[in-house]
Batch of 4 targets.
Target 1
Amino acid sequence: MPTDTALDTDTLLTWFAEHGRDLPWRRPDCTPWGVLVSEIMLQQTPVARVVPLWEEWLDRWPRPSALAAASQGEVLRAWGKLGYPRRALRLHAAAAAIARDHDDVVPADVDTLLALPGIGAYTARAVAAFAYGRRAPVVDTNVRRVVARAVHGAGDAGRPSTTRDMADVEALLPAEESRAARLSAALMELGALVCTARGPRCADCPVYDSCAWQRAGRPAYEGPAKPVQRYGGTDRHVRGLLLDVLRGTSDPVPKERLDVVWSRAGQRDRCLDSLLVDGLVEQTADGRFALPGEHR
DNA sequence: TAGGCGTGGAC
DNA sequence: TGTCCAAGCCT
């Protein structure tokens, strides 16, 4: 007789059909392009902050070629304070590649998606699954946590290993394509709504009865401590302050306008240099600074 | 592969 | 307040 119970994926699918959120990029009329934009925006960013910006972007740039026709500066300004603005530049570049090389149609093939800028192991499979109904292991932080608990009986996921993590999820996926795609969404949704990092709501969990973490008595996480991400006073902080100045003006600004945002000159200059290197800022012929692509 | 890369809300 | 966290990617 079996010593453990396989995760009840049928029940999870039923729960998702009833309790999954009605997010705009999940609606039947959403295009693959809409799904791709949502996935990039959602990287390390909460759903609530993405929704309004996603609506704005899809209205303004309904196809990859439309975004590709915009300047980098326009795109960065439209990205606003969503965070990690290099994502906007990479999405812009991906849109140009899709328009040029793929007839303005977002690819459905994982390897083709992986070749595009800003699209990694997670996003490529998320687009294949959610935009095209493909069977692909979609592994994000939610899924890693759900698998760690419900399958392995651990308190949380350890350090990521793309190969091992995808194999874990692959083993859970049903054979049928669209069903597998829905299970991937359901695993993520369970992690986002129920099997959360802090304060998991096990009493509301659809797979409580087949959860290995429950059977193990809900042991605490025992792996290596996760590194703390500081922000205040870091280069990321200063880069954010510098970019905020440039987003707020239509004309190039002299360096003095940037110098006032941070008192430590060495760090300030290093950050401005790194923004230039990253292509997030450009210098005009007369030495002023601006978002890229608008003042050549 | 470990660390850099924005931002703001929740507790 | 400070800490943790949020659908990762790139080097």
Target 2
Amino acid sequence: MVSVVAVASHAGVSPATVSRVLAGRVPVAAETRARVLEAIEHLGYRPNEVARSLRAGRGRAVALVTGDIEQGIYASLAKHVQSELEALGLDLLLFNLGHREDRLRHFLERAPSLGLRGIVLSSPHVMDMVELTPVIRAAAESGVEILSVSQDLSAFGITSIVHDDVGGAAAAVAHLMGQGRTPVAFVGRIETSAIGRARFNGYRDALLAHGQPVDPALVWDISEGYRADAGYHAASEALARGLRFRAVLAASDELALGCMAAAADRGLAVPDDIAFVGFGGLGWGVFSRPSMTTVSLDSDAMARAVGDIFRSQEGGPAPANRRVIQAKLVVRQSA
Amino acid sequence: MVSVVAVASHAGVSPATVSRVLAGRVPVAAETRARVLEAIEHLGYRPNEVARSLRAGRGRAVALVTGDIEQGIYASLAKHVQSELEALGLDLLLFNLGHREDRLRHFLERAPSLGLRGIVLSSPHVMDMVELTPVIRAAAESGVEILSVSQDLSAFGITSIVHDDVGGAAAAVAHLMGQGRTPVAFVGRIETSAIGRARFNGYRDALLAHGQPVDPALVWDISEGYRADAGYHAASEALARGLRFRAVLAASDELALGCMAAAADRGLAVPDDIAFVGFGGLGWGVFSRPSMTTVSLDSDAMARAVGDIFRSQEGGPAPANRRVIQAKLVVRQSA
DNA sequence: TGTCTGTATGACAACGATTTCATGGGGAAT
DNA sequence: ATTCCCCATGAAATCGTTGTCATACAGACA
């Protein structure tokens, strides 16, 4: 590998001067600079990032911890975050938990030794903060920027970028109410996910605000997974039991798709017999038939907010400890 | 940060001994080992990965270069590859090209300086090999394992893990033939993607083998993107022009979904009026209605093959230069 | 008892880049 | 002409880890 030493000897200067030319912060004689640049060009020199990271005490990689990269919302987030980071000259390290919480702990233990620039947590788990906080604090003390996307951890001193789950869910319910589609069922993780609970809260509050009761039989708390099969099973079972409902608000587009499939398999028409609203708004929802009405989360905006954090590290203004991205109801065919 | 020096002084030994205890390959007196382990535990020491990487000449990260992480097949691949790597103690660096080829070049320039263990290329672009080969060779010479997933680059000396696109497409066409659904249209990237072209070849060969003509008007070569909107537009236009076809083989599930939406919007029944077969078989296809018949690619098997490469680096048997993963037609409702 | 062998350990160099400290030389000011 | 100052540059230390080389000590055998 061609190193600074090689470049330096080729240009007839010391390694320090080569470094100075690259850094550009210290004055170097124009003639010397030209010689160095020529040598760099000639030898095809590229600074070794690992050595830089060691010397600087931290590298140029940001870890993104996702719940399930196969879900549209996380894939979209990963895409946009990577794009943002790339513009900042940073790399993205992907850790997909796949709904196994032990992996998170394992990662957080290893994290401080990886020389990361930052960690972006975006997992739907209700994390056991009592246990996690010391780990996170240790990481933060070692100069690693930690931030949370989707889940509000600002109370723990962690910069959080969240979407308005309560408002989004309420808007969806209001929309369904406006069409007279009652009763409305809810499906999602409630007990085991802070995000799911927020969406449930929005659903519940909106129902109550419209003078509607919350029927426990129409609240389907799935224990794990936000995937379509969970929605299918929940809706199938409800239909088999003969429960009556005219609409379903799902905590993810995947869940909504599964519910719709269950309805379709029983010969029910969407949205006339039952209407469906999902959460996410990323991916195939535009082209499914019926296309999916959904509470759209702006993953691009979330990614930009993530980018802002790292931009601010380089001298820009420090962003707020908590940033809320609005959720927007996108009305399509399914409701 | 707590370093070997700190551990060494706490245990009353030299840094070298601490390193020896960690490596475990050199004999260390039992009593000394115990003291060192106690010190490690006491101080919460974790070896600095960056320093290790510098010293070793390469790190423990593998880069995955994807075409579009929002597409089911790539997301699934990323998930499984990350899982495999995690089991090997390796980290995944994600580079999403998002169909911008210049990003690939930029990445390959930077790659050698990142201290990567390997690079997994999985982008549908027909890469300009004339230009790329020197870069790839340079990376390979610096000890980085380079391999290609989906695209066969074994002719360029790059270990390739491919799926049987030709066979998969042929099986799909044969299935449609068996149902008497002719003529069959094809949609995908043909000119600008080696993978798309392979699928087209399978389609063409199967048609000819069944004594059917290949109608150029029913071959829709989309210039960019494998996403649903491209399929929607292609199919809409064909239907608007009054072209007659009874089935569509699409080079991705997303394209197929777009085509199906176009058909649905014209009041056509699936599969009775037109049948659809996609490619990929990952994600929502099971729960869309009609559910999607598709040529399923086993991303898990591909990821395991990737894992095998890196396992073989650690002394295992060297795997073949080219490995073919079978594609399997999964028949559901759409065809 | 002396030499030999082998094992356990320490000192030191090296990976590649950056930064601090020191120095030489040229120009300006008196 | 002499002194002063600043600019450009080089030498050397440093980040944390690991491998090489050297050494000290214990046990064995003649």
Target 3
Amino acid sequence: MNTTEQLPPRQGEVLKLITSLTEQQGYPPTLAELAQAMGLRNRMTVHQHVAALKKKGLVQWEPGLNRSLRVIGGQSSEPISINSKRQSKPASVTPITKGLPMAGTIAAGNPIDALETDEYLEVESRYAGSGCFALKVKGESMIEEGIFDGDFVIVKPNPSPTNGEIVVAVLDDDTATLKRFYKEKGRYRLQPANKDMEPIYVPSTQEMNIKGVVVGLFRKMS
Amino acid sequence: MNTTEQLPPRQGEVLKLITSLTEQQGYPPTLAELAQAMGLRNRMTVHQHVAALKKKGLVQWEPGLNRSLRVIGGQSSEPISINSKRQSKPASVTPITKGLPMAGTIAAGNPIDALETDEYLEVESRYAGSGCFALKVKGESMIEEGIFDGDFVIVKPNPSPTNGEIVVAVLDDDTATLKRFYKEKGRYRLQPANKDMEPIYVPSTQEMNIKGVVVGLFRKMS
DNA sequence: TTTGGATCCATACGTAAGTATAGTACCAAG
DNA sequence: CTTGGTACTATACTTACGTATGGATCCAAA
């Protein structure tokens, strides 16, 4: 289900046309242009074809925006199960997006020009290649580390953290928690960054179920 | 007239924005999107800028077609040379990534599994469409807002913030600062979130140079 | 002084283009 | 036979979005 050879004929033809017309024109085609290229009389047929392709995860567009139709790398997204055995990922298209332009450093005293830069801040494209996933934080157990309720932490799968790293740990009762990890004599310590909260101790004799290490944080601020 | 540095400032900025937005979105921007990215209020200004660029042979579009604007010649990050031979190759349109898979909420007490999810955390792809840029924070003026030294703030161009929004302001001495913005009687107040620091006041009679509003924060944590 | 370019603003109009709704026909699988 | 998918048709509505027209200010060059 990943190749155009296994799509219905007209869907495969639409997919190829989107790609080729986009390359030729430098901008995506409209439904009318696709219809014309296929010898159809109205846009609705094409709309139905692209809707079917969208359901299959092969194209995407911004609803309501003109000429926003584009082919997605061809991979449909797969659910990620932390508790299950990790599968080897199929090859995915490497994102070409450059991320957000870096405008410099603020409070450093130098003027800002938002566009005089070759540097870019990349977030999902930085982490997406290594199986990272995101979690939304609930609660204030790590508030003194600047991890607030509502923030998103980016987690890199790693079952063997080093001391002092902030980890996602799954406890005996299957609840997940975000804490700083320490391996001590005879036990593991999961340390909150909130002076009103106590650490969690897990005996060394128990299997410590660490899902990963926090590698980044994102916060929406408006 | 060899490089974009020798275009008038705004024309050079438009040219770069067309390229970067096209790459990031996968389709060319509209005049309105360009206007927003530049902090302008209406499309006509941008139209005039692109018209000037078109006269200089740097961009082209199909008259009357929506979203057909493209840069002529050159690679996205390369300086554009007017005097050299160039191909009329439009900027290429790229597939997009979906961002980081969301694994749920941590500390909510429920197991993390459940990744039958269609949700993705998008950062640069969320913001890239509106001309946002990133700044690296230096100092601790907003530390009580959870904005730490070394963090990256994501800034959306907006010359007219509302009270209480965290803004990037350029002061008289051309230094940039990150503060919470308040318009008061007879003056503007730029409020730090650090009890050891004083607010900055700017008289209303002075032009308040706001580059934009902080819409997001990113922190590398390992 | 005049002219042209750069840069910003506004409103109004008309077309481009997506979407909604409705219909038909054919084929394969259950 | 029923159902779902594929594939085609039409009209109508709505929003997106480019363009026209008009205005202003500032600056540099002739």
Target 4
Amino acid sequence: MKRDSRLSGLLHVLLHMAGREEPVTSETLARIMQTNPVVIRRIMAGLRERGHVRSGKGHGGGWVLACDLADITLRDVHEALGEPQLLAIGHRTEAPSCLVEQAVNAALADSFREAEAMLLARLGTITLAMLHADFSTRLALRARPEGSCP
Amino acid sequence: MKRDSRLSGLLHVLLHMAGREEPVTSETLARIMQTNPVVIRRIMAGLRERGHVRSGKGHGGGWVLACDLADITLRDVHEALGEPQLLAIGHRTEAPSCLVEQAVNAALADSFREAEAMLLARLGTITLAMLHADFSTRLALRARPEGSCP
DNA sequence: CATCATGTAATTATAAAAGTTACATGAAAA
DNA sequence: TTTTCATGTAACTTTTATAATTACATGATG
């Protein structure tokens, strides 16, 4: 199965937008992400509808963050993408007439629901501000590798 | 993304084999599963290597369970399938040079690892015997719907 | 009003599972 | 021992999802 990497990509874009006052064009973001501007517009659409980002047309247009990084969780971003499937495995048939298959589906559904709920809850606790802090830490570590003096 | 339903399908097949002494052919199992015999052989291969089932060629050949249903967990079956991806979402790049993307990947990886571990642990607690019991319960309920007298 | 940037529909490329075909291997029956 | 049956696999096709691309409409700015 092909894994959906839109969440990862969208987070990447959002962090690159952080701190910038001027709008960033889809063209620029696409270069950072090594993809196509249309892909950027597509994955940003949900965030715009939810008011997390704003977009402007024409000269000086582009994308800007519309709220604080601390106010967006990874779950928000996931929802903005239309809440795509989190689990890669599923049932063969949605409403099987076979009782054996019904039992299998019921058992799997319970576990999968639990795992999804747990993952969603976890995503809800991580804000973009936390990711940004993590990024800053990495930047400091790279600039001043372990063992070196401040 | 297309969801992997091999686990569900394999469990279905195994439960249909339960209790049968004589070998069941891939042909028969494929009819039950409404699929192709080759698909059956493919998903059963891992279980055979691990000794959970045996297969025989020629006349009177086919598949038989090689152990008690209580001794196979859903996790065993998942492993027999080659431990396919459980999560449908992943990273864009495996080893990104961009520090921002590294931070994103690290944050996601933590949560995903946790969710996967939790799901695997859960699968490890469910045996085929439990699924079989669930099936039997459903059978009894269908034969004697709620409200009817024993 | 020309240019720039988004908005979106339509099309093509890509990747993984599922399904199919073809044939080799080996066991049991005739 | 030869025929038949069933597995074991490799190779190929189909299916279905995301991702990438193309094309063009919309609207803002200089």
